[in-house]
């Protein structure tokens, strides 16, 4: 008899053999739980079949957990999952961090007693932290009271996302206690976010009041972009935009991505627009990493608030503007997001292209595709071919990739907690665009956690 459990396990086996096949074909080492060195595919760009097989494996594992575990037990673990965040926070706050000391101990590992001495944590409490973090495979207890590193230990080093955002995430965790209250009010700038309800200050002002946070926050964003969106440059069919364009990146940050795009497209120019205060940091980043582009005048920096109409002059005839707004709209509720888009109009004649790069939560698209069929159809195909084929995702995985896309639903909730905003589904983005002078044209997924929504000025 084919049970639900059998079906999930069969799909798991299929996905595992696709992943193993890709590792063999690409001559890439196997994943090893006791090898703390970075795997070439961590933050890299595996072939599409392997990219999707990893997502399927994660999604299916969680479906099996949800199927077989006692729901009450699962809910107790999940409802107290702040214990994981707080343990991670505790071990990245020491100097040196717990991960640094464990990694330095090599494959022999280190006794908790010595780890405590090295990091200044109490031995008994550290052991409890280690029990929890070993349960989640960030470390391994190789024998009683003796800890060694795993494949995940590196994610708790001082240059990690966890370390960079430790203060703001923990402030957000405290603010989470107000979510039930804030969830009653509609999304809009007139309603406070859980963060401001709890801390009586907006997150941006909270960060500004902590100068050390600005640098750490920027670093964490850079790490997140590199880790979560490695395929943007390779997978996006940018040749459709034309050989000679001026890319206007709204809320660009330092502009690591436009820099890569300009390096690959010699006919492109860029305008990077962000807050005035960031301009010196942006300029020095470009002067250091792309001095030839700065000297040739292909990049310009515009300190300007996107809540005011853009001061950009009309685009040169031979280099039309293409606007890009990446990881920005999900920071703002609908009324402010629409204002940001409308403020581009003075420089956007009808027909102008806008690329919105954002986390885009999946929506149900019932299909009969099985996991086996999905992988058979994408096998050995390039990302461009897969994008064109628009193969429906297997229903068995749930909506989208299920837990394989948890970084999207987690980001969505983080936006709500910290900024009272949200990541928008295609349906929600279409509705938002309807209120503006931009029209939705399509969505492209690539090897990354975000998607590109193309819109055009009507
Ligand atoms: C989450 S970051 C995204 C940065 C970059 N686009 C990326 O994908 O890495 C949001 C950006 O919006 C910028 N920003 C916030 N308020 C702004 C404003 N009023 N005008 C212009 N930029 C703003 C921030 O300085 C920051 O660089």
Automatic annotation (TrEMBL):
Annotated ranges, domain O-methyltransferase C-terminal: 195-367
Gene3D superfamilies linked to this entry: Vaccinia Virus protein VP39 (3.40.50.150), Winged helix-like DNA-binding domain superfamily/Winged helix DNA-binding domain (1.10.10.10)
Molecular function, one GO term: O-methyltransferase activity
Entry superkingdom: Eukaryota
Keyword presence, Phosphoprotein: no
A GO BP entry: methylation
InterPro entries cross-referenced by the UniProt entry: COMT-like, COMT_C, SAM-dependent_MTases_sf, WH-like_DNA-bd_sf, WH_DNA-bd_sf
Keywords: Methyltransferase, S-adenosyl-L-methionine, Transferase
Keyword Zinc: no
Signal peptide residues on this chain, from the entry's feature table: none
PANTHER family registered for this protein in UniProt: O-METHYLTRANSFERASE CICE, PUTATIVE (AFU_ORTHOLOGUE AFUA_4G14580)-RELATED
Name used for this protein in its record: S-adenosyl-L-methionine-dependent methyltransferase
């Amino acid at each position: 008899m084919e049970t639900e459990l059998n079906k999930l396990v069969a799909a798991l086996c299929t996905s595992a053999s696709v992943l193993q096949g890709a590792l063999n074909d690409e001559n890439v080492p196997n994943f090893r739980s006791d090898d703390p060195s970075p795997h070439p595919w961590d933050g890299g760009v595996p072939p599409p079949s392997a990219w999707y097989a990893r997502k399927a494996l994660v999604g299916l594992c969680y479906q099996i957990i949800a199927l077989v575990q006692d729901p009450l037990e699962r809910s107790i673990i999940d409802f107290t999952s702040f214990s994981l965040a707080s343990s991670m926070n505790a071990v990245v706050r020491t100097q040196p961090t717990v991960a640094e000391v464990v990694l330095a101990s090599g494959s022999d590992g280190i006794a908790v007693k010595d780890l405590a001495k090295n990091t200044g944590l109490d031995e008994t409490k550290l052991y409890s932290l280690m029990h929890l973090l070993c349960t989640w495979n960030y470390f391994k207890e190789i024998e009683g009271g003796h800890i060694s590193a795993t494949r995940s230990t590196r994610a708790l080093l001082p240059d990690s996302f966890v370390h960079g955002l430790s203060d703001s995430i923990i402030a957000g965790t405290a603010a989470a206690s107000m979510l039930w209250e804030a969830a009653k009010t509609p999304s809009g700038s007139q309603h406070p976010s859980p963060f401001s309800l709890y801390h009586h200050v907006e997150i941006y002002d909270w960060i500004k009041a902590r100068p050390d946070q600005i640098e750490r926050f920027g670093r964490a964003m850079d790490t997140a972009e590199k880790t979560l969106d490695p395929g943007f440059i390779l997978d996006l069919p940018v040749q459709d935009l034309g050989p000679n364009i001026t890319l206007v990146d709204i809320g660009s940050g330092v502009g690591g991505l436009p820099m890569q795009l300009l390096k690959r497209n010699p006919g492109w120019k860029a305008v990077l627009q962000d807050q005035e205060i960031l301009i010196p940091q942006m300029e020095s980043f470009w002067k250091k990493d792309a001095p030839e582009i700065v000297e040739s005048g292909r990049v310009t920096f515009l300190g300007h608030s996107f809540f005011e109409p853009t001061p950009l002059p009309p685009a040169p005839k031979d280099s039309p503007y293409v606007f890009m707004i990446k990881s920005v709209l999900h920071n703002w509720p609908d009324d402010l997001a629409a204002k940001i888009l409308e403020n581009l109009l003075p420089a956007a004649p009808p027909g102008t292209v806008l690329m919105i790069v954002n986390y885009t939560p999946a929506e149900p698209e019932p299909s009969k595709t099985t996991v086996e069929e999905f992988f058979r159809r994408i096998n050995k195909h390039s990302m461009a071919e897969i994008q064109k084929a628009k193969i429906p995702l297997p229903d068995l995985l749930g909506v989208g990739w299920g837990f394989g896309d948890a970084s999207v639903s987690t980001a969505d909730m983080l936006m709500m907690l910290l900024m009272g905003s949200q990541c928008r589904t295609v349906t929600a983005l279409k509705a938002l665009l309807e209120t503006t002078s931009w029209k939705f044209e399509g969505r492209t997924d690539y090897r990354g956690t975000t998607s590109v929504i193309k819109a055009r000025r009507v």
